[in-house]
Design goal:
- The structure is a single chain.
- By secondary structure, this protein is of the alpha/beta class.
- It has a single domain, classed as 3-Layer(aba) Sandwich (Rossmann fold).
- The protein is built from 4 helices and 9 strands; from the N terminus they run E-H-E-H-E-E-H-E-E-E-H-E-E.
Protein backbone atom coordinates (compact mmCIF):
# COMPACT_ATOMS: atom_id res chain seq x y z
CA UNK A 1 0.00 0.00 0.00
CA UNK A 2 3.08 2.26 0.22
CA UNK A 3 5.23 3.58 -2.60
CA UNK A 4 8.53 1.83 -3.13
CA UNK A 5 11.01 3.26 -0.61
CA UNK A 6 8.25 5.16 1.23
CA UNK A 7 9.16 6.47 4.68
CA UNK A 8 7.55 4.65 7.64
CA UNK A 9 7.06 5.88 11.21
CA UNK A 10 7.01 2.94 13.64
CA UNK A 11 4.95 4.40 16.49
CA UNK A 12 5.87 2.55 19.68
CA UNK A 13 8.68 0.63 18.01
CA UNK A 14 9.78 -1.24 21.14
CA UNK A 15 12.84 -3.39 20.42
CA UNK A 16 12.59 -2.76 16.68
CA UNK A 17 10.96 -6.06 15.63
CA UNK A 18 8.65 -4.47 13.03
CA UNK A 19 11.20 -1.83 12.02
CA UNK A 20 13.60 -4.64 11.09
CA UNK A 21 11.00 -6.16 8.78
CA UNK A 22 10.33 -2.82 7.08
CA UNK A 23 14.06 -2.11 6.59
CA UNK A 24 14.59 -5.62 5.17
CA UNK A 25 11.71 -4.88 2.76
CA UNK A 26 13.45 -1.73 1.47
CA UNK A 27 11.70 0.98 3.49
CA UNK A 28 13.45 3.72 5.46
CA UNK A 29 12.15 3.75 9.04
CA UNK A 30 12.01 6.12 11.97
CA UNK A 31 10.93 4.50 15.21
CA UNK A 32 9.75 6.23 18.36
CA UNK A 33 9.11 4.91 21.85
CA UNK A 34 9.19 6.19 25.43
CA UNK A 35 11.31 3.32 26.76
CA UNK A 36 15.04 4.07 26.72
CA UNK A 37 15.85 0.41 27.30
CA UNK A 38 13.75 -0.77 24.36
CA UNK A 39 15.23 1.94 22.13
CA UNK A 40 18.74 0.71 23.01
CA UNK A 41 17.68 -2.73 21.79
CA UNK A 42 16.08 -1.26 18.66
CA UNK A 43 19.26 0.64 17.78
CA UNK A 44 21.30 -2.54 18.24
CA UNK A 45 18.82 -4.75 16.37
CA UNK A 46 18.17 -2.37 13.45
CA UNK A 47 21.14 -0.04 12.95
CA UNK A 48 19.79 0.97 9.50
CA UNK A 49 16.77 2.69 11.08
CA UNK A 50 16.63 5.88 13.12
CA UNK A 51 15.15 5.82 16.62
CA UNK A 52 14.07 8.58 19.02
CA UNK A 53 12.50 8.90 22.43
CA UNK A 54 9.20 10.61 21.77
CA UNK A 55 5.68 10.64 23.15
CA UNK A 56 2.93 9.83 20.61
CA UNK A 57 0.88 12.63 22.13
CA UNK A 58 3.55 15.15 21.10
CA UNK A 59 4.70 14.16 17.61
CA UNK A 60 7.18 16.79 16.47
CA UNK A 61 7.82 15.69 12.88
CA UNK A 62 7.10 18.14 10.06
CA UNK A 63 3.80 18.04 8.17
CA UNK A 64 3.63 15.36 5.43
CA UNK A 65 6.77 13.52 6.60
CA UNK A 66 5.68 9.88 6.25
CA UNK A 67 4.11 7.60 3.67
CA UNK A 68 3.00 5.22 6.41
CA UNK A 69 2.49 5.15 10.17
CA UNK A 70 2.58 1.74 11.90
CA UNK A 71 1.04 1.54 15.39
CA UNK A 72 1.04 -2.14 16.31
CA UNK A 73 -0.19 -2.66 19.89
CA UNK A 74 1.13 0.71 21.01
CA UNK A 75 -1.80 3.13 21.08
CA UNK A 76 -3.69 0.78 23.41
CA UNK A 77 -1.57 2.22 26.23
CA UNK A 78 -3.13 5.68 25.81
CA UNK A 79 -6.33 6.85 27.46
CA UNK A 80 -9.40 7.19 25.26
CA UNK A 81 -9.37 10.95 25.90
CA UNK A 82 -5.93 11.19 24.23
CA UNK A 83 -6.83 9.30 21.05
CA UNK A 84 -8.58 12.11 19.08
CA UNK A 85 -5.58 14.45 19.43
CA UNK A 86 -3.11 11.66 18.64
CA UNK A 87 -5.02 10.72 15.48
CA UNK A 88 -4.94 14.38 14.40
CA UNK A 89 -1.15 14.47 14.97
CA UNK A 90 -0.72 11.26 12.96
CA UNK A 91 -2.89 12.70 10.18
CA UNK A 92 -0.69 15.81 10.18
CA UNK A 93 2.61 13.90 9.74
CA UNK A 94 1.28 11.59 7.02
CA UNK A 95 1.67 12.58 3.39
CA UNK A 96 -1.51 12.89 1.29
CA UNK A 97 -2.83 9.36 0.64
CA UNK A 98 -0.55 8.07 3.44
CA UNK A 99 -1.49 4.82 5.18
CA UNK A 100 -2.10 4.45 8.92
CA UNK A 101 -2.14 0.93 10.38
CA UNK A 102 -3.21 0.31 13.95
CA UNK A 103 -3.73 -2.80 16.05
CA UNK A 104 -5.69 -2.46 19.30
CA UNK A 105 -7.43 -4.73 21.80
CA UNK A 106 -11.15 -5.16 21.40
CA UNK A 107 -13.33 -4.45 24.39
CA UNK A 108 -14.83 -1.63 26.40
CA UNK A 109 -13.23 0.90 28.72
CA UNK A 110 -9.79 1.21 30.27
CA UNK A 111 -7.92 -0.63 33.01
CA UNK A 112 -4.59 -1.27 34.65
CA UNK A 113 -3.79 -4.94 34.80
CA UNK A 114 -0.98 -7.38 35.38
CA UNK A 115 0.49 -8.95 32.27
CA UNK A 116 2.90 -11.86 32.02
CA UNK A 117 5.34 -9.88 29.83
CA UNK A 118 6.04 -7.38 32.64
CA UNK A 119 5.99 -9.27 35.95
CA UNK A 120 5.15 -7.39 39.15
CA UNK A 121 4.01 -4.24 37.36
CA UNK A 122 0.57 -3.23 36.17
CA UNK A 123 0.19 -1.80 32.66
CA UNK A 124 -2.51 0.53 31.39
CA UNK A 125 -4.77 -0.63 28.55
CA UNK A 126 -7.65 0.94 26.67
CA UNK A 127 -10.08 -1.19 24.72
CA UNK A 128 -12.16 -0.37 21.64
CA UNK A 129 -15.03 -1.56 19.50
CA UNK A 130 -14.63 -1.38 15.72
CA UNK A 131 -17.39 1.19 15.23
CA UNK A 132 -15.90 3.41 17.96
CA UNK A 133 -12.45 3.24 16.33
CA UNK A 134 -13.97 4.05 12.94
CA UNK A 135 -15.64 7.18 14.39
CA UNK A 136 -12.35 8.39 15.91
CA UNK A 137 -10.51 7.87 12.60
CA UNK A 138 -13.17 9.52 10.44
CA UNK A 139 -13.40 12.49 12.79
CA UNK A 140 -9.62 12.99 12.33
CA UNK A 141 -10.08 12.96 8.53
CA UNK A 142 -9.08 9.37 7.69
CA UNK A 143 -10.89 7.05 5.30
CA UNK A 144 -11.08 3.57 6.81
CA UNK A 145 -9.93 1.07 4.18
CA UNK A 146 -10.32 -2.12 6.20
CA UNK A 147 -11.16 -2.98 9.77
CA UNK A 148 -11.45 -6.50 11.14
CA UNK A 149 -10.88 -8.54 14.29
CA UNK A 150 -8.28 -11.23 14.92
CA UNK A 151 -8.26 -13.74 17.77
CA UNK A 152 -4.91 -14.09 19.53
CA UNK A 153 -3.55 -17.57 18.86
CA UNK A 154 -1.51 -17.82 22.06
CA UNK A 155 -3.38 -19.06 25.06
CA UNK A 156 -2.92 -17.98 28.64
CA UNK A 157 -4.19 -20.54 31.16
CA UNK A 158 -7.45 -19.54 32.86
CA UNK A 159 -7.95 -16.50 30.59
CA UNK A 160 -10.15 -16.17 27.51
CA UNK A 161 -8.31 -15.52 24.22
CA UNK A 162 -7.86 -11.85 23.38
CA UNK A 163 -9.52 -10.29 20.36
CA UNK A 164 -7.60 -7.60 18.48
CA UNK A 165 -8.84 -4.98 16.02
CA UNK A 166 -6.70 -4.52 12.93
CA UNK A 167 -7.30 -1.39 10.88
CA UNK A 168 -5.92 0.27 7.76
CA UNK A 169 -6.85 3.89 7.10
CA UNK A 170 -5.79 6.43 4.48
CA UNK A 171 -5.19 10.15 4.78
CA UNK A 172 -7.46 12.08 2.47
CA UNK A 173 -5.59 14.10 -0.18
Amino acid sequence: MLPKGGMILDLGCGSGRDSAYFVASGFPVIGIDLSEELLKLAKKNVPQATFFIQDFRKLTFPVDSFDGVWACASLLHLKHQDIPAVFLRIYRVLKPHGIFFLFLKEGVGEEEKNVSSVPYKKRFFSFYKSDELRRYLEKAGFSVLDIYTVQDSKSVPHEPPEIWISCFARKAP
